[in-house]
Write a structure and sequence with these properties.
By secondary structure, the chain is α+β, with helices and mostly antiparallel strands. The chain has 3 domains: 47 residues, Alpha-Beta Plaits (2-Layer Sandwich); 200 residues, no CATH class; 94 residues, no CATH class. The chain contains 15 helices and 13 strands. The strands form 3 sheets. Strands 5-4-6-7-11-12-3-13 form an 8-stranded mixed β-sheet, with helices on both faces. β8 and β9 form a beta hairpin. α13 packs antiparallel against α14. The longest helix has 16 residues. The protein is globular. The relative contact order is 0.16. The structure holds flavin-adenine dinucleotide. Flavin-adenine dinucleotide binds next to α4, β4, β6 and β11.
């Protein structure tokens, strides 16, 4: 019977739930807000399908022969609305044009993040943009299998652990499946996200009507987080000043399994990997205008075909693979769990967002002063 040996050995991918022939496994939220499988012992027929399907029990190795490209979507609107260079939108539109279906992470009406399927170009915007919270897979794996078995082309996108879960669940190669993952720093807790949304709603006194997690109007590197509210109020902060982004970037609220990721580096199974091309100014300066450049890593011939099919809509340059990930350690290294993570997570589970933030993530007076001095120096000596 399925038993999660420890919290860092479950990514909550939902493969066990999807494969269960008697529907006796549910994903249940723990105190930190992450989903873990719970088996109904009364219903379980002990067939072992869940154990065999779990990607932690079936480690597969991805391909090691990689090609890397710096890529920019020629459509400026799509690019500015995307987190990096806007490559995802082109892959999605191409699959939809061919009659296919695209799976990706989308906010529902309450800004809970869920995986959903789209098959219309007008809905691509729903999946566009990085959302920094773990996505609930719901029944995405079952739905994808149904489309695949019916011969429909499917583009399935997500984190490396979600792609490993899908592959473990499907158990066979489908010619009509293209998988795309991201370089992933780690996924934050949905409970922390909910508490932050409550905090923003309380501050503005009205319902949220729009969220942009990567607003690039002041630049790709200086991106900000922006909210719009029903009463017309707006909130916008550069990411290093926004409390939620600070908690995320300090690694205080990531899923336990993210601190020892089993699916990054060459273990990733996706056909194509997308990321921010951090360090592009040092590798290919002409591909950097601070509006966002994507790093596209081709992992398989199918990934290469998918990239070839969108090439006329992008500006691109091939780069040596090792150079492409030099400034993006999350490609193969998991982030370190900070000593105060447990304290932060226990506190936020009991109290509200601002209390936990002030206690664990707010800058001290000394740090704020240091940052201010650095900012002044940067302004004075800017070329
Ligand atoms: C939690 C998280 C951590 C990341 N960490 C890094 C990093 O360390 N280094 C780096 O270079 N890039 C990282 N990225 C990826 C990067 O921000 C862009 O998403 C990626 O470069 C694709 O950009 P794009 O412009 O082509 O497409 P966009 O339109 O910006 O991205 C859309 C794609 O991202 C997927 N997506 C969005 N949010 C989620 C989510 N929460 N879970 C699963 N899939 C999601 C959508 O399904 C879709 O496939 C991270 C993204 C997320 C969501």
């Amino acid at each position: 019977m399925l038993k999660v040996p420890s919290k860092n050995k479950c990514s909550g991918c939902s493969a066990c739930v999807s494969i269960c022939p008697v529907n006796c496994i549910k994903l249940v939220e723990d105190q930190e807000g992450f989903l873990y499988p719970k088996v109904d012992d009364q219903k379980c027929v002990k067939c072992g399908a869940c154990v065999k399907t779990c990607p932690y029990n079936n480690e597969q190795k991805g391909q090691t022969d990689k090609k890397a490209f710096a890529v920019i979507n020629k459509d400026q609107h799509e690019r500015m609305e995307s987190s990096s260079g806007g490559v995802f939108s082109l892959l999605a539109k191409d699959v939809i044009k061919k009659g296919g279906v695209v799976f990706g992470a989308c906010f529902n009406q309450d800004y809970k993040l869920e995986h959903m399927a789209i098959d219309s170009e007008k809905d691509v915007y729903k999946l566009r943009g990085a959302k920094y919270v773990q996505s609930d897979m719901n029944d995405a794996f079952n739905k994808a299998k149904e489309f695949l078995d019916n011969g429909r082309l499917v583009l399935f996108t997500g984190t490396p652990c979600q792609i490993a879960g899908l592959k473990g669940y499907l158990k066979k190669e489908y010619q009509n499946l293209i998988t795309q993952d991201i370089i992933c720093h780690g996924v934050p807790s949905p409970m922390v996200w909910r508490k932050y949304l409550n905090y923003r709603t309380m501050q503005s006194g009205a319902k949220i009507t729009k969220i942009s997690t990567r607003c690039k109007k002041d630049g790709w590197r200086r991106y900000s987080v922006a909210f719009t509210f029903e009463n017309g109020k707006e909130y916008e902060r550069q990411h290093d000043l926004d409390p939620y982004s600070r908690v995320f970037l300090k690694n205080l609220c990531l899923r336990p399994s993210c601190y020892s990721c089993n699916f990054n580096g060459d273990k990733r199974l996706a056909d194509i990997t997308l990321a921010d091309f951090w360090g592009i100014e040092k590798v290919q300066g002409e591909m950097d205008d601070d509006k966002g450049t994507s790093l596209v890593i081709i992992n398989t011939p199918k990934g290469e075909q998918a990239f070839n099919d969108i090439k006329e809509n992008v500006v691109y340059i091939k780069v040596p693979f090792e150079d492409s990930i030099k400034h993006n350690p999350s490609y193969h290294i998991s982030v370190v769990e900070p000593n105060n993570r447990t304290g932060f997570m226990q506190t936020i589970a009991q109290k509200d967002f601002s209390y936990a933030y002030d206690k664990y993530a707010k800058d001290s007076f000394g740090n704020k002063t240091k940052k201010l001095i650095k900012k002044i120096f940067r302004k004075l000596f800017r070329r």
